[in-house]
Amino acid sequence: MALSPLRIFTSFSSNLSYTEAGIPTVASAGIDLALWTEQQNIFVQAALFAVFFVLAGSSMLLENTFGPTMAPFALMAAVAAWAMSRKITVRKLKSV
Length: 96
Prior knowledge:
- The chain is built from four helices and no strands.
- It is mainly alpha-helical.
- The longest helix has 25 residues, at about 40-65.
- Keywords: Membrane, Transmembrane, Transmembrane helix.
């Protein structure tokens, strides 16, 4: 689940940079964040875990539903549909 966002990103773009140890920079940043989180208060840890679980869980759900190659397009379609619905709502409010 933790690497699902990385798999989706790499299927969309192959421009990954790597550390000297050969770890993708995005994964290295995740490791650094996890090490930093271990030193924080339990409430900060719980809040960060909840945010991570929502983001990684939704990525995993997209990946399992549409496959890793189609997941970015499904995400873009969902964002476009949401943006279009917001524009329609804003126009209705302005005309009243």
